[in-house]
Amino acid sequence: MVTHPPVRLVLLHHAGGSRLAYRGWERHLPAEWEVRALDAPGRGLAHGLPLAPRVDDMALSLLDRALDGLDRPLALFGHSMGAAVAARMAGLLRAGAGPAPVWLGLSGWTARPGRGRAVAEAMTDDEVIDLVAGLGGTPSEGLGDPLWRRMVLPALRADLAAMAGFDPLADTDWLHVPVSVFGGRDDPAVSQARLAALGAAAHRLVGVHVHPGGHFYLIERAGELAGQITDDIREALRATTRDPRLTTRGT
C-alpha cells in the first residue's frame, strides 16, 4: 500500500475576498491533510486586524497563522492576489522565517509587477467595481447595493493598492520552491502565454494546468482543481524525499 504523509495546505484568497472562496474544498482533498483557508487582515476571522497596506504586511500577518502548531510539511496555494501573497510567504520562509514549503500553487497570476500605488489609489469606486466585474468577480446584484459597497469596497481598494505596489521579482527566492501554475483558458487578465512563462521561470516546475473558464474558473472547477493540487503536492513530496535539498535555503 502506498502511504502519503499528512500535509498542511494553506489556501489564500483573491483581492476583496475571504476564506469563504474555498468553502467545501476539504471534501475534495485527502482526509489526512489539514486544510487551512485563511482570511487576509481586515476581514472574516481576521476582521480585528487592520487592512494590510502592502503584500509584505499581508504575508507576514498570514505567516503566523500558517505556521501555528505546524507539525507536518507545509504547502501553499493562492489565487490571484492570494498567489502573490503565497509567493511572498514562500520567499520569507526560504529566507529563514520558518520551514520552507514543499510546494507552491499559483493560480490566476503571472508575477508581473504592479502598475503603481498612485494609479490604484486614484481609482474611483465605480472604476474599482468595473475592474473586478470585468473579471467576473462582482455579482451584478451587488453593484448598486450601498451595504455591499460599505462592506466590500474598503478591503478591495486596500488589496488592489497593495498589489499595485508589489514587485514579485524583487526577491525571487520563491521561484526555488516546487511550483505549479493554474489558470482559466479565457481569463482576460492572465493569458496562457503568461502562465507558461511563469512556469518556465520556476526552477522546479511541477505542472501547468489550464482549465475552461475565466479568472474565477476555480469556482466551477473546485473538485478537478483539488485533484490536481493533490497530485502535484504528492509529486513534490516524492521529489523532496529523493533530494531533501529541494526545500532548503539557498538551493
UniProtKB/TrEMBL annotation:
It comes from the Bacteria. InterPro entries: AB_hydrolase_fold (IPR029058), TEII (IPR012223), Thioesterase (IPR001031). Residues 8-231 form the Thioesterase domain. One of its GO terms (biological process) is lipid biosynthetic process. SUPFAM superfamilies: alpha/beta-Hydrolases (SSF53474). Pfam families: Thioesterase (PF00975). Gene3D superfamilies: alpha/beta hydrolase (3.40.50.1820). Belongs to the thioesterase family. This is Thioesterase.
